[in-house]
Design goal:
Elements (H helix, E strand, L loop, with lengths): L14 E6 L3 E6 L3 E6 L4 E2 L2 E2 L7 H15 L8 E6 L2 E5 L2 E2 L2 E8 L2 H8 L4 E2 L2 E2 L9 E7 L2 E2 L11 H7 L4 H24 L2 E13 L2 E5 L8 E5 L3 H6 L6 E2 L2 H9 L15 H19 L11 H16 L1
Antiparallel strand pairs: 1-2, 2-3, 3-7, 4-5, 6-7, 8-14, 9-12, 9-13, 9-14, 10-11, 14-15, 14-16, 16-17
Helix pairs in contact: 1-7
């Protein structure tokens, strides 16, 4: 198994700064372009885990690339090129400070709120008498604030407009794009025997144009169920078979970790790291419907740096 890439520290011509997120290293090139390296870091409960997962960055970047291309007729997106299996280069857009979360099914955070007695989530009503993992009559949009640090918080459309976080005109476009992207993602998933359960989209603006930014329809930003057996499991109140990062969260919870103060991340043995890597590759093959081809494991940082440099030269 190749070594995981958990850190990059390049210096490109006209580089303004480097933003290191939980998973992505984002290089700002002249306030015009972004070179985003999707590392092999893995986070859960807003905590970056101590070990990287080989090939995870490649999996996420290639899934996102495929879906950006498959939805570019719906909304312009930030991607210009994918010069390396772990890299996307694209437009720098001013991000909207909300994430557009859309849910087709009552699961995850929505189910936890529902179980606690709430029947309105981010201003969206949730009907009485629903059960976990049941499909909503139509998908609901439940935005969150985009926190620079700490946890994102639920927020309603009414509150977003009242606080002036996004203008009414722009927000209504974001809603329209979110619904159309989710519909397209649902169609593509169905062709692969999957159900796109919920996901989040991030948008930005450049020269007055709204762009879809960041990743899209990856197992880190989305939840998928297998279509086969969904109805039977629902009828029996059984857990759904799902494709997402949830298996990592479940392993952490089973070992007493939920990101709370005083809790310790369980030991990530080589065997556990390899298992998680294999699951990510399985996710890729199921979602994309093709065999995953592992990138060359030799001198990966040097390869990434060269591929970004070569691509940036063509953008001048």
């Amino acid at each position: 198994m190749k070594e995981a890439i958990v850190k990059t520290d390049f210096n490109f011509p006209n580089q303004k700064n480097l933003y290191v997120g939980k998973v992505r290293d984002v290089y700002n090139i002249n306030d015009e372009y972004l070179a985003m390296v999707v590392s092999d870091r893995i986070s859960a409960f807003d905590v970056v885990l101590p070990e990287g997962i080989p090939f995870k960055g490649q999996v996420l970047n290639q899934i996102a690339t495929r879906f950006l291309d498959a939805t570019s007729d719906i909304v312009p997106n930030w991607k210009i090129a994918t010069p390396d299996p772990m890299v996307t280069i694209g437009h720098l857009a001013e991000p909207f400070m909300v994430e557009m979360v859309i849910r087709g099914y009552l699961t995850g955070h929505a189910w936890r709120e529902y179980k606690a007695g709430k029947r309105v989530l981010c201003g969206e009503p949730m009907p009485e008498g629903m059960k976990e993992n049941q499909k909503f009559e139509k998908p609901i949009i439940t935005p969150t604030t985009k926190a620079m640090e700490g946890h994102d918080e639920d927020i309603s459309k009414e509150e977003i407009l009242k606080q002036g976080i996004v203008s009414k005109e722009d927000y209504e476009m974001l809603e329209k794009y979110t619904q159309a992207l989710f519909a397209r993602g649902t169609e593509i998933a169905a062709e692969k025997g999957l159900i796109l359960v919920d996901t989040k989209y991030e948008f930005g603006k450049k020269d007055g144009v709204i762009y879809l930014i960041d990743e899209i329809h990856t197992p880190d930003s989305s939840r998928y169920f297998y279509s086969e057996g969904y109805a039977e499991r629902l009828a029996k109140n059984e857990q759904q078979k799902q494709l997402s990062k949830e298996f990592v969260r479940e392993w952490l919870m089973e070992n007493g970790f939920q990101g709370k103060d005083g809790q310790k991340v369980p030991e990530m043995t080589e065997e556990k790291v390899n298992q998680i890597s294999e699951r990510y590759i399985e996710l890729y093959e199921q979602i994309i419907g093709e065999k995953f081809v592992k990138a060359d494991a030799k001198a990966v940082n040097a390869r990434i740096e060269k591929n970004i440099s070569d691509c940036l030269k063509t953008l001048k």
